Amino acid sequence: MKHMNSEVKEERTSNKKRIDLFLVPIVLIAAFLNLFKIWTDEYANAYYTAAVKSMLQSFHNFFYASFDPGGYVTIDKPPVVFWIQTISAKIFGFHGWSVILPQALAGIGSVLLLYVLVKRTFGVWAGRFAALAMALTPIVPAVSRTNNIDSMLVFTLLVATWMLFRAVRTAKFGWVLAAFAMIGVAFNMKMLQAYMVLPAFYVFYVVATKITWKKKISFLTTATVLMLAVSVSWAVVVDSNSADKRPYMGSSQTNSVLELAFGYNGINRLTGNTSVTGSSHKQPAQTQQQTASSETKQNSNSSADSSQSSNQRKSSSSQKMQAPGGGNQNGMFNTGNPGPFRLFQKGLSDQISWLLPFVIFSIVGLFAGVKFKGPYTTKQKESLFWLAWLLPVAVFFSIAGFFHQYYLIMLAPPIAAFAGAGAVALWSMYKQHNGWKSWLLPGGILTTAALQVYIMSPYVSSIGVAPIAGVGALGVILALVLAVRKQRKNSLTNYLGAAAMVVLLAMPAYWAMTPIIYGGNSMLPSAGPDSSSGMGGPPSTATNSKQSGFNGMQPPGSSSGNSSSNNQMQPPSGSSNGGQMSGGSSNNGQMQSPSGSSNSGQMQMPGGSSNNSQMPNSFSSKSSSSKRKSGGMNAEVNQKLLNYLTKNNTGEKYLFATTDSTSAAPYIIKTGKPVMAMGGFSGSDPILTVSKLKALIKKGEVKYFYLSGMGKGGQSDVITWIKENSKEIPSSKWQSTSSSAQQGPSGNGTLYEITLK
């Protein structure tokens, strides 16, 4: 106990010391990467931004995280992060940057927390290097520059880690409870993803605390019960309320938060279940599918975590669909093929894996000589914690059927911690000539440089040969020189070691800057020269590189009038097969309609975008627009449609109804008025029935319906009834540009009016 008290006193004394001057530039780097130019993102992720707009209007919408001001349906995540975003918007005003700001600050906070966590045990230089590695991990600023959840989630889990470490040092049970309660708070940010760190928490507490097994089991059981209680607290309140007194729980099939947590946001991520209705079916690799999940719509629709890409659909007439991670292309959503080396495949490696070989060598060095039965040093115990965080999460991403690239931010803390702690440990072993362990430093430098060359090689057309050759050559030279000079102790050797660390961080630093250099994507954030496309793969080889973006498509009700021959969709990666999309055959580079109709192979844009719309260039780094509306391909408002709906509203609650959130979100953001996304985020939620819709119309709550496509899941009967019982509004009254070739559900969409007595 005396030892514990002395550690607490030492901590208090160290906290009174002046600020570490080496930490200041690291924090400034993190601030630049996370904050610079976020004010240019006008809509951010429109799906979530619309929810904040709605949550600002009433406590009812705020508590339930309602997507629309009318309280019809919620977003597909729990509310805690969006509560924070709403408070930020209340303080600073409703802007794209004000909803991004909390995540950007969380990204900076994570850098500081990692410094504190690593420094105390492994030394100040280990803390500095860990903080710098965290700041420069490309996916960290890429996510933190958006209003997606993951940056705040990681920050919260690091706060829980700090509490756990303090609980062990002070032997106070209250800190254990606080740590596990914080994980419960994180659950209310992104549900089961927060539990990925639990193995680390359990293992560390068992190994690091010097109390009886009876107390360990008792304390951990109590803390776990508290964590579960905090986790389900909001869900229990919501699910216990009458369904007619709250919004429908978006992206669930049973209007239940718990079903959402353990299904859509839980087990389905691992299994790759891509059901669009209440039925469940798993997509095995390379099977033909005629449907796509609510998340399969993301790249072609709206939100970063909530919107999924139809980009991986094969363009064949049979509508074959690449299963998650399957096939010989680059997996669904460019997440690679499942297997032990998945994190080294393109699409994932350039987001998170730049330092992984060095981390592996660091782990070997840090655990060298450790005996299974102990005793363990503090360094070994905390190394075990970071390892128990790293391995389960890495295994999940190696085998999971369904996730997005930006989820990889969960790996950033343990990788950065090992990079910092390992750099100091391997350097010490190298300087002390500790036998085979002295070779770990040059070996780690050499293999890490080799991997970085491999990561960059698909991007040679974008970044050139020089940086790739430079990293490779310098990595080899520095590793060999360090190996040759292993027996010498002088300042030159120190400089060589520092130079090696700079070389290994140079390209991750550049990659971390790409969302600023090339523009980011708030729907599917990723880093790299193609960061604005959100595809996370090698850049397009299209003649006009500006066509690689996926945002700013034509708004509902507008038509470009472009000829189809000039509006082929460019592939996201560097395919030279005449513009073919990766994952299947192409129709001269055009994507096939999701509805299954050929449309000459052109891509039907869910939510009403023209199938003749050219790929946008509004998010190119050379874009002339000072504001980026990166909320989705329809993150624009058709003013003529809005004017018509506003003028002809006769007291209806909803401005109009549409199939999903993509068309609704921009109008909610623009006007703050209720717009009904009848099928929730993706259009597949079984919210409405024909009888319920009739009742809403008779009550005078909705009159206008904007429809594009045939509807999904349980909506088909509703869509059919609307078309059979409505009056079609002539396009000349509401379309910004008339084009008869684009009328109807297979084109830009159709506006209907229904009045029932």
Please outline what is shown here.
Helix content is 47%, strand content 2%. The protein is an all-alpha fold and 757 residues long.
How many strands in all? Answer: 5
Shape descriptor reads globular
Strands across the major sheet, in which order? 2-1-3-5-4
C-alpha-based Rg, rounded? 27 Å
Question: Per DSSP, what share of the residues sits in E-state strands of 2 or more residues?
Answer: under 5%
Calculate the terminal CA-CA distance, rounded to whole Å. Answer: 79 Å
Helix share, percent: 40-55%
Uncertain regions spanning at least 5 consecutive residues: 1-8, 276-329, 539-554, 559-625, 738-747
| Helix and strand pattern | HHHHHHHHHHHHHHHHHHHHHHEHEHEHEE
Nearest-integer average pLDDT: 80
Largest sheet: 5 strands, mixed
The class by helix and strand makeup works out as mainly alpha
Number of helices: 25
Care to describe what's here?
The chain is an all-alpha fold and 757 residues long. It has 25 helices and 5 strands. It has helices at 2-15, 23-35, 46-55, 59-64, 80-92, 96-122, 124-136, 139-144, 150-170, 173-190, 198-208, 213-240, 257-271, 349-352, 356-366, 378-399, 412-431, 440-456, 460-463, 465-484, 491-517, 639-647, 661-671, 690-698, 716-724, and strands at 657-658, 676-677, 704-707, 727-728, 750-753. It has a 5-stranded mixed beta sheet with strand order 2-1-3-5-4, with helices on both faces. Helix 11 runs antiparallel to helix 16 and helix 18 runs antiparallel to helix 20. It is globular. Residues 1-8, 276-329, 539-554, 559-625 and 738-747 have low confidence and may be disordered.
